[in-house]
Write a structure and sequence with these properties.
The chain is mainly alpha-helical. It has 13 helices and two strands; from the N terminus they run ααααββααααααααα. It has helices at about 1-30, 40-55, 60-85, 90-115, 140-165, 165-175, 180-185, 190-210, 220-225, 225-235, 240-260, 260-265, 270-280, and strands spanning about 130-135, 140. It has a two-stranded antiparallel sheet with strand order 1-2. Helix 3 (about 60-85) runs antiparallel to helix 4 and helix 5 packs antiparallel against helix 8 (about 190-210). It is globular. It starts with a helix and ends in an 11-residue tail after the last helix. The relative contact order is 0.20.
Length: about 290
């Protein structure tokens, strides 16, 4: 019971951090149709920006400012680079993947030039450094609970935005009927820029919250760069609820696997094995809708 309870708590908290990372990618793909290969680099940039801001302003201002800075970088990239690629018409998806891959390479080199090749000392704030409670003699970190609250708050905010506000309806309509939305007086290119910038900001927020809980170093983007697409595909391409469900499922599975000696060595492979099973049995994803 002790192993099950602690593994479940750790798995849920880890899964919610994964959701924070995959939510922005899901948002960008579902609303813009862009498979952003630089998404993990925005996550890395958010962690490094938070580290630098924490040294000057402290963690709490960095929690707000770092995602905004990353969002501005994403919006500028969409405005000055990605928007020109959109003009390529039916073949634009290949060009989008190549240009976002180029951005990931540039950001990776830039991080090493500015902050060095080794890990930085990005620490958890002192007020959240201790345990929240102790279960069977094992402390549960307060910072993990904070990560859970941030992730759930982000999911709730996105759900309310796209289901309960006029702005969310306009954004969704801009993808399927851009000409009609433009005729109603809305600036569709600006909407696309804000959506891409918002998705980058969500990745930056994941970096702010996860960078000090794990390790902030130049290889952190490569570590999550491939697995983040697993969450999106397993959950269902473009489904925010699917990204949440897949992240929780994979987070719990990996946490339990790590704690069991015979299969612990195979824990990193579990997301990809699940991906293969889902693609074979349900190509649209666990929470996705079948395309007609």
């Amino acid at each position: 019971m002790e192993f099950f309870t602690l593994s479940l708590l750790n798995g849920l908290s880890y899964g919610l951090v994964l959701f924070m990372l995959s939510a922005g990618l899901t948002l960008i793909f579902s609303l813009l149709g862009v498979l952003n290969l630089a998404h993990a680099s925005f996550y890395m940039l958010g962690a490094y920006a938070a580290y630098s801001l924490t040294l000057v302003l402290g963690f709490w201002p960095a929690l707000l400012l770092a995602p905004l800075l990353v969002g501005l970088v994403g919006a500028a990239f969409e405005r000055w680079v990605l928007r020109r690629v959109h003009a390529h018409g039916p073949g634009r998806h290949k060009a989008e993947m190549l240009v976002t891959f180029g951005l990931a390479t540039v950001l990776g080199e830039l991080v090493q030039l500015v902050w060095g090749r080794g890990p930085v000392d990005y620490r958890i704030p002192e007020v959240l450094a201790g345990p929240l409670f102790t279960l069977w003699g094992t402390p549960f970190p307060a910072y993990r609970a904070f990560m859970v609250l941030v992730a759930l708050g982000m999911w709730l905010a996105l759900w309310l935005l796209f289901t309960r506000t006029r702005t969310g309806l306009v954004v969704q309509a801009a993808l399927t009927h851009p000409d009609a939305v433009q005729a109603l007086g809305h600036n569709v290119p600006r909407i696309f820029m804000l959506v891409f910038g918002g998705g980058a900001a969500l990745a930056g927020l994941a970096g702010v919250v996860g960078g000090n809980a794990f390790v902030t170093e130049p290889g952190m983007a490569a570590t999550v760069g491939s697995v983040v697409f697993v969450f999106v595909v397993v959950g269902g391409m473009g489904s925010l609820t699917g990204a949440l469900g897949a992240s929780l499922l994979i987070g719990v599975l990996q946490t339990f696997a790590v704690g069991i000696d015979p299969i612990s060595r195979f824990a990193p492979l579990l997301p990809y094995l699940l991906l293969v099973l889902v693609l074979v049995s349900r190509p649209q994803g666990l929470w996705g809708q079948r395309a007609d």
